[in-house]
Amino acid sequence: MRTVNLESQKNGTMSKAKEKSAKKRVVEEDDDQIFQLPIFGKDEKKAGEEDDADLSDSEESVFSGLEDSGSDSHDEEEDAEEGDDEEDDDAVILDEILTKSRGVETATEPPATDKNTPTPDVKTAPKQKRKMKKGEGVAMDDGGEKGLSTTRLGDEYEHDTSDEEDIRNTVGNIPMEWYQDYPHIGYNLDGKKIFKPIRNKDELDEFLDKMENPDYWRTVHDKTTASDIRLSDEQVDLVHRLQKGQFGDVNFNEYEPSVDFFTNEVMIHPVTNRPQDKRSFIPSLIEKEKVSKLVHAIKMGWIKPRKPKETTPQYYDLWAKEDPNAILGRHKMHVPAPKMRLPGHEESYNPPPEYLLTEEERMAWEQQDAEDRKLPFLPQKHSCLRAVPAFSRFIHERFERCLDLYLCPRQRKMRVNVNPEDLIPKLPKPKDLQPFPTTMSLVYIGHSSLVRSISASPTGQWLVSGSDDCTVRLWEVNTGRCMKTLEVGGAVKSVVWNPNPAVCLVAVCFESTVLLLNPGLGDRLVVSSTDQLITSYEPPEEDKEQAVTWALSEGPEHDNGHRLTLTHPKAVKQVVWHGKGDYLASVMPDNSSNLQVLIHQVSKRRTQNPFRKNKGLVQCVSFHPLRPYFFVATQRYVRVYNLIKQELTKKLMTNCKWISSMAIHPGGDNLICGSYDCRLAWFDLDLSTKPYKMLRHHKKALRGVAYHKHYPLFASGADDGSVIICHGMVYNDLLQNPLIVPVKVLKGHQITHDLGVLDVTFHPTQPWVFSSGADATIRLFT
Amino acid sequence: MSQLQTRFFTDNKKYSVDDVPFSIPAASEVQELSNVINKLLEAKNGSHSQIEFDFLVRGQFLRTSLSNHMEAEGISTEDVVEIEYVERFTAPQPEECMMHDDWISSVEADSEWILTGSYDKTARIWSLEGKAVMTVAGHTDVVKDVAWVRRDGLTSLLLTASLDQTILLWEWNSERNKLKARHCCRGHAGSVDTIATDPTLATEEEEEVEEPPSRPRKKQKTEQLGLTRTPLMTLSGHNEAVSSVLWLDSEEICSASWDHTIRLWDAETGSVKTTLTGSKVFNHISYSPLCRRLASGSTDRHVRLWDPRSKDGSLVLLSLTSHSGWVTAVKWAPSHEHQLVSGSLDNLVKLWDTRSCKTPLYDVSAHEDKVLCVDWTDSRVRHHLYSPGETTHI
Question: Model pTM greater than 0.80?
Fold first, then answer.
């Protein structure tokens, strides 16, 4: 018990209140205990002084600080110089005891410590403190001795040694040097003076004592009484035990079996026999109130019942947002190298006979190129594995394998998957674009050679056709009856019906002649007025030199319908009427002169050559249906001239090699060009000089193109014997481009001498198309 | 083999059988049914000779097996099926061929004589036996249409219309075989393609004249005495060539045109009463007073039936589809409610029964070239005219 107290005192945390109560008790102590009391009293005083800030206290605790005793000792020697030798002795003795007990010879140490330099006087206060501690250590020893001596187990609370004061000397915890000058050192309990020893031991005595006294190591100097105390064996033992950190009491068993009062095991009998409280049987009103509050809150929806926890674990995609271009992404695109083919029967050293090449096969194999060979080696038969020679192609094969591995680009092609149907522009269905011609209805048979040109009368009742059999035929449209056949002097290149319904005239060109015919069909009044118009011509007074000669037909030719003959200097290829029906243009293709296009005025029988320069071989010409424009198509370009200003307005690039035909939209802003390189170009004159659309539907050269006057239709005939009808809607809105939809391929003409359809023209009022072909027929599609 | 409960009936008293239900195999066709009727008639009347019958189930001719037909028409097979049977209309046979030198543009027949117009600028009168009786020559251009006006005993009045923009009225005495041109009607500005006479008027002159594909006008003429007559009334309104005219009755005129319309005119005022709008050019129309329907032939190969009385105009009652070329001529049978003939540019003449609209009754394929005109006579005589100039007479 006492040792425990000692330890608590070592910590120096005793409160002053406790000290006082202890002091009161001290008075009542026995004599046995008086011996100890001053030591403890001194200790407590020291604790009271230091109270807050004795940091060295813990450092210099008796047992842990023993090794620093050197420094302690020289401090004490300073004290000794001041005259207090006893204390020095104390420290040294204790040191020696300890070191000897450890079996370490430290006898030489004290002199070494003596040599230490003295510290300045300022340090006296800390030194004092340390002295106190020495005293404490000694006192403790004493206490230990006491404890050991008093082993009785009586009433342990009878004297509380925790705050016992040193009762051997009653002066209290004062600096002992105060008694330096006195013969006594204090007073005992009886008030009698405690006298100092008569003679102080000096150094020599000390030394001698050390050398001679066998009990010197166990002798301790008591400062308060200034006497030497010889420690008994038990006390030395106690010191040793404490130094080892053991309990001071030998008999104390620190490992007594513990009694587990409350155990984890369920026991049969209750720990306490106390009956249960009544309240444990009665429902709690407070709880009821709380529960009802909660129930109300749940009912009102203020509290949501707890959601059941989802038992399924939640996963997330670690690679969801991974960049495919990152390295890991590229790893996905990795294409492993192809594996080598495994050896088959051919490679066997003893292949089955069907794998062995026969003699002819061997010859064939040898003659083949190395790349064409099915097998890169000749299968060979050996009687045993031992007879197989070294594989001669080994290095070669390895080398090729390496080439395969590093030269072959193994990466996945980034191919864009586009549905081909998405690339097709959205066009309306042909059946929504009716009416347009769909079937062949009538065949006009009568010509004996290919029909170059056809033209329908403005009323749509009659059709005129010109053929290579040197005839012009007039047909009734709705029955297919040939009403008239007119012989002309050459293969007819072009026939055109005058677009003016008030005039009944057909322009026919053959060889170098343009003939104006009056077919005599239709309204008699119109026919006669046309004749009158031609005969009413009065020649001008001064005769101008003209490029062509105008001649009025007479006699039997007149009865045949011939009215005017225009003899050109060169072969005429095409004639075309102006929309009003008075002007007529004729084309004489000639690469070397400027006399290629002539414009005639029928009423005045005048002819003029509008162009001074030769811009290329003229293919066809056309008048603008509404405005005074004139279109001239050469082999590759279409030039638009303003006839009033006499200047070039536009030059259209057709991107074709050779234009064959041309047609102007009745609105006048669009134009189609057929060419011998199977293309049809649609120009929007407002848009560009380049084609708005190029249609390549025909397999062979286009020969004729035509627009319908009223319906949004255009047709093209080609040498492949087909006529293709397209829906070509032109909008008044300038922002909307024309809508072009191919709607029908009309077949019927037979291909004769590699020529199919030569000309197409539309019925003026109905959605019908006429086509003339090299098979000498004209066909009507409705 | 399932059986059907059927009951046969007929309008013809000569062939009537007992009104009791018979159980007939469902798969039986016309031939088997015909045999059944013949057996029944033989049992009733020993002297009965075999006759071919045609059968109508709910107004539709039976053309396939009975079960298929009823399935197609949605007739319940649970009830007793009422089947009407009629004597089969025998296939027309070409009897006579009348040769013209040129294309025949029109034909009109009455009970004794046949009048034809030709592209050789003449019209001819033929006897029913196919003998050319008279040639009417006077036009300076192609004769496009001909019409009988009236016959009083031996004297007949006839009309010819020509491309030379005139219509000539002729008086022909069949006994003396003398022809006299009585009037010339002028007024058209184009060729006259079609004419029609009012059949109800007994007075002498009442003809109308139709105008050709040249002017958006149509003219009607009523002739007065004198050599040259001018139109009494001009009906104008069509945008394009008028292809066919006819009288519905004495007050109404009907005309078909290339402008996709059929118009009904009031003969008194000359105003349009109704317009029937189609989608294609009309080549010819015909009216049957028996069933009060208009039949039209158009360039899209269909024969269409119209009700001219309907106010909402363009309602097609029935489409007869079998031709493969333009339908150039249609004509109702004068004595049969359901039958009509159509001629087409595909060289075929088809005989239709409106009760069997899917297929025609008969195809007459004796022609070698385009059919331009057809006509019936009361005595079940039919004439066709074709372009090469053959007339077939049945």
Answer: no
- How many Å apart are CA B218 and CA B210, to the nearest integer? 6
Best residue of B184, B298, B323, B326 to probe chain A, by most A CBs closer than 10 Å:
B326
Which residues is A566 bridged to in the sheet?
A: A514, A550
On the question of pLDDT at A553 being above 50, the answer is yes
Task: Give B142's contacts in chain A (Cβ within 8 Å).
Answer: 483
The pLDDT of residue A752 is: 84
Environment class of residue A574 by beta-carbon count within 10 Å: exposed (0-12), middle (13-18) or buried (19+)? buried
What number of residues does chain A have? 782
Per-residue DSSP letter, A506: E
For B325, which residue in chain A has the nearest alpha carbon? Answer: A441
Residue-wise pLDDT tens digits, A26-66? 444 444 443 443 444 444 444 444 444 444 444 444 444 34
Report DSSP state, residue A705.
E
pLDDT digits (tens, 9 = 90+) for A746-757: 888 888 888 889
What's residue B358's pLDDT? 66
User: E strands of B46-153, at which residues?
Assistant: 53-57, 60-61, 81-87, 96-97, 104-109, 113-118, 122-127, 132-137, 143-152
Q: Which of B214, B243, B386 to mutate to test the interface with A (most CBs of A within 10 A)?
A: B214
Give the closest-approach CA distance of B12 to chain A in angstroms: 43
> What is the complex's ipTM, to 2 decimals?
0.77
pLDDT at position A83 over 50: no
Q: How far is residue A587's CA from residue B125's CA, in Å, rounded to a whole number?
A: 53
Find out whether B300 and B280 touch, Cβ atoms under 8 Å.
yes
pLDDT digits (tens, 9 = 90+) for A674-724: 999 888 999 888 888 889 888 888 888 898 999 998 888 999 999 888 999
Q: Is B301 left (phi over 0), alpha (psi -120 to 50) or beta?
A: left
Q: What is the spatial distance between Cα A195 and Cα A744, in angstroms, rounded to a whole number?
A: 150
pLDDT at A314: 83
To the nearest whole angstrom, how far is the Cα of B118 from the nearest Cα of chain A? 12
Question: What are the chain B neighbours of A523 within 8 Å (beta carbons)?
Answer: 165, 189-190, 214-215
Task: Compute the distance between CA of residue A770 and CA of residue A25 in angstroms, rounded to an integer.
Answer: 148
Q: Could you tell me what percentage of chain B is helix, strand and coil, using 3-state DSSP and rounding each to the nearest 5?
A: 5, 45, 45
Please name which of A175, A160, A219 lies closest in space to residue A37, comparing C-alpha atoms: A160
**How many angstroms separate the CA atoms of B110 and A306, rounded?**
104
**Which of B275, B281, B333 shows the shortest CA–CA distance to B306?**
B275
pLDDT in the model for residue B78? 72
Q: What are phi and psi of B297, to 5 degrees?
A: -110, 135
Q: Give, for A359, the enclosing helix (H) or strand (E).
A: helix A359-367
B345 Cβ under 8 Å from any chain A Cβ: yes
Closest CA to A617 of A596, A648, A642, A640: A596
Q: How many residues does chain B have?
A: 394
User: C-alpha distances in angstroms, A615 versus A573, A639, A642, A664, B242?
Assistant: 17, 9, 16, 21, 50
A460: which chain B residues are within 8 Å (Cβ-Cβ)?
Answer: 213, 240-241
Count CA within 13 A, CB hemisphere, residue A672: 29
